[in-house]
Design goal:
alpha+beta, seven-stranded mixed β-sheet, two-stranded antiparallel sheet
């Protein structure tokens, strides 16, 4: 029967201990509402409705949640995210690292189980990967935690949890395709909308 390795988790080097906090915009409802903020709010609602008509379900849902102004966390389908090739590639790279480190650590030893933790890492989701997820999240952080088991013959089995996190906001001064983010950031700053955390999890075996 194998033993559990109690040394620090494998695969952690290079990962962050904590998920990224929201950007440094003004606090919620800190600024006064101006007429053009109401116009931006109407434009945002029209954009969300258009995305919904185009079948961009995740993008529309995220923007609507922002404009609703509750600030409550929103869960996403982490399995759908994990199925995107760009995300799957990033996750598989971490799993490969876990396997290599487990074999190195367990060389010449009896069967053992090694705790593993990637720390928080980010992956960019471009338009070509998925227009829907690009508009919904653009970039998302993920963290893998789990166990790598090595048997007596060097065989490996990995059980893992895939957690995702995103601070949904609009960075002042940022832009995408020529569309400035500052007017949408003001919706949070004036209390017409509110930033929120995006979370989700999925489980796998490899």
């Amino acid at each position: 029967m194998g033993q559990t390795d109690l040394s620090p988790p494998i695969g952690r080097d290079g990962g962050w201990a904590d998920a990224e906090p929201p950007c440094g915009n003004a606090a919620h409802a800190e600024l006064p509402v101006r007429p053009y903020d109401l116009l931006t709010l109407a434009v945002g609602r029209a954009i969300a409705a258009t995305w919904s008509l185009l079948g961009l379900r995740n993008a529309a849902g995220m923007l609507r949640h922002y404009l609703a102004g509750t600030g409550t966390p929103r869960r996403v389908d982490a399995e759908a995210l994990l199925a995107l090739p760009v995300v799957r590639e990033a996750v598989d790279a971490q799993l490969a690292r876990w396997r290599a480190e487990a074999l190195e650590r367990g060389c010449g030893r009896a069967p053992a189980a090694y705790p593993a933790d990637s720390g928080w890492r980010d992956v960019f989701i471009g338009r070509r990967a998925s227009r829907d997820w690009w508009l919904a999240l653009r970039c998302v952080e993920f963290r893998l935690t789990g166990t790598v088991r090595v048997d007596g013959s060097g065989g490996l089995a990995v059980d893992y949890r895939f957690a995702v996190h995103k601070a949904y906001n609009f960075d002042r001064g940022g832009s995408e395709l020529g569309v400035p983010f500052t007017p949408f950031a003001r919706l949070h700053e004036t209390g017409l909308a509110r930033q929120f955390a995006v979370t989700g999890e999925a489980f796998g075996h490899a």
